[in-house]
Amino acid sequence: MTQMIASGFCAGMAALQQALRTLLLADGALASLVGTRIHDGPPARTGDLPFLAFANAEARDWSTGDAGGQRVDLKLEAVSREGGRAEALAVIEAVEAAVAASGIDPAGVTLVLLRTDRMGVERLSDGRTWRASLTLRALIEA
Prior knowledge:
Blueprint: H1 2-25, H2 28-34, E1 38-40, E2 51-61, E3 69-80, H3 84-101, E4 110-123, E5 130-141
Parallel strand pairs: 1-2
Antiparallel strand pairs: 2-3, 3-5, 4-5
Helix pairs in contact: 2-3
């Protein structure tokens, strides 16, 4: 039973990330900022800036009496150097706008809710690089 729950959690999270990636790669405003530099985790070559990366993700049980479900928190990070804080925030704002305007449909699950949960920005230890983050919260029925 535990193995089935774990695989269901992974499948729902993966379906959400894939649907978001497809949406973001097709968004013109975001493409004007990062091109196709949308990665699953940090890219192998971090010198190609700015970029957007899927970062931490967490799923929790959100089942009801008659249906399985998950609450998924999915964090995206925009990293910029030359454009500074403003560029990192512009990337995150483009992500938020694309998600707000979309009707994404993750394969194999029902997306009940998708909203912005948290946003932040920080300068990294090198003193030149900025990272802005956006955490999306989704409620998914399996």
